[in-house]
Amino acid sequence: MSMKRIVTCAITGSIHSPTMSEHFPATPQDIAQHAIDAANAGAAVVHIHARNEKDGSPSSKLEDFKVIVDKIRSVNKDVVICVTTGGGLGMTIEQRTHIIPHLKPQLASMNCGTINWGLFPLGEKIKDWKHEWEIPYYSNKEVIFPNTFGGMEGILKMFADHDVLPELECYDVGHLYNLKFMLDKGHIKSKLYVQFVLGITGALGASCYDLINMKQTADRLFGTDTYNWSAFGAGKEEFPVCTQALFLGGHVRVGMEDNLYLSKGVKAKSNAELVEKMIRIMKEFSYEPMTPAEARETLGITKG
Q: Please, are residues 44 and 8 in contact by the beta-carbon 8 Å criterion?
């Protein structure tokens, strides 16, 4: 088993908000700079969501994504840019995916099933918000994150048409069975790259047992060592899940999309700090981060 691993950094996402951390990147320019710094710290892949310049709310606008991607590429032409199609709460599938034909990224996420989407536990901890949009965003208990078979089929066709490798995000064991169905029906032509997303309220937990359950199920469905995979846990489970993933042969993801803290009670000042901590942990066990070129070779990325 190789001792090299892909480190992905998820820069901003759509889960956290400006109120939750003064260090949170909440404008296109800040997101791009955090991505550049994360790449310099050792991340081979940066996972990109966009935010509105004025209030830091999740954005689906092409112009916001272009600001981010163009700034990253003006400084770093090597790092692999993974563009989200998960979007933000309440976005339609069209809003989440319309950027793909324009940006033609090398890698893009695709969510492999519908779940309840519970951000309200985060909202219960905060009384004073910086922006009006945050209040309903973090108090709604009726949210579903829809990812239907029709939607998945459409996204995978779009990816194939534009030579985009799918990063297949699975939040629960059932999502792996959805993925197997799509694979058997011929909607996925590339080698599988699966991201285990653990610890989201409304989906699977983030204990060591949950990670092993996902890995064993994927091995049964797809065959041992025939697919690439990565994992992370939300919040305080980020580094425990990533560390265990190393031992199981997986790649890892850190970043302020998933976790705002460097350690208990200590907020990360940047995404780069989270990458640096992950690489320190890796080196304690003789693992090394892959370069972007090594990540492309491992995942089979040839275009973009």
A: yes
Q: Distance between CA atoms of 229 and 246, rounded to whole angstroms?
A: 11
Query: pLDDT in tens for each of the 304 residues of the chain?
Result: 589 999 999 999 999 999 999 999 999 999 999 999 999 999 999 999 999 999 999 999 999 999 999 999 999 999 999 999 998 888 999 999 999 999 999 999 999 999 999 999 999 989 999 999 999 999 999 999 999 999 999 999 999 999 999 999 999 999 999 999 999 999 998 889 999 999 999 999 999 999 999 999 999 999 988 899 999 999 999 999 999 999 999 999 999 999 999 999 999 999 999 999 999 999 999 999 999 999 999 999 975 5
Q: What 3-state class would DSSP assign to 90?
A: coil
pTM for the whole structure: 0.96
Q: How many residues does the chain have?
A: 304
DSSP string, 151-210: HHHHHHHHHHHTT-EEEEEESSHHHHHHHHHHHHTT---SPPEEEEEE--BTB---SHHH
Q: How many CA atoms lie within 13 A of 279 on its CB side?
A: 21
Q: Which residues pair with 110 in a beta bridge?
A: 168
122/213 Cα distance (integer angstroms): 26
Residue type, 65: F
Phi, psi of 232 (to 5 degrees): -160, 160
Q: Which amino acid is at 47?
A: H
